[in-house]
Design brief:
Length: 158
């Protein structure tokens, strides 16, 4: 058996053990991307009810629903974009500009896993997770955004 996404694979495993799992959501329309975006800063542990999220709870960005991810504040979103990274980046910029929060996480726990399923799949979520972590952690070490971009341009294989 094969599956196109991690959610489908989990469903197949649960069914194989005789459980009745929830079925995965249907894919969003072409040009739209479904993802979770979490505020999980590296050096603090804000909880879901933290007052800094009040404005986002009252009026989440278009296409997003407020959710609790563990004990963290998160948004579950379906947003437009040419790629998943574009959709996530635009939303992160919107939240940073309107609420002063750098969203830091896509909820990927096993970063060492991999899927070469294109610019909109699970592999793209893993890359997005790593980039969000770098965007938050690099400046804490003294790196600028330009330093991070320069690193990617220098190290990346075309």
């Amino acid at each position: 058996m094969t599956a196109a996404t991690a959610e489908e694979a989990s469903t197949l495993v649960e069914e194989a053990f005789g459980l009745t799992p929830p079925r995965p959501e249907p894919p969003p329309p072409p040009g739209w991307h479904r993802f979770s975006l979490i505020h999980c800063p590296v050096d603090e542990y804000p909880r879901f009810q933290d007052p800094r999220y009040d404005a986002l709870r009252a009026c989440p960005p278009d296409g997003c629903e407020v959710r609790e991810f563990g004990e963290y504040f998160s948004l579950r979103c379906v947003r437009p974009g040419a790629t998943l990274l574009e959709a996530v980046g635009v939303l992160c910029a919107e939240i940073r500009a309107e609420h002063g929060l750098l969203m830091t996480d896509l909820g990927i726990e096993k970063l060492w896993e991999w899927s070469s399923d294109g610019t909109d799949g699970w592999g793209a979520e893993i890359v997005g997770q790593l980039l969000l972590m770098a965007a938050e952690r690099g400046p804490k070490l003294g790196y600028s955004v330009d330093d991070l971009v320069r690193f990617l341009r220098t190290a990346a294989v075309d």
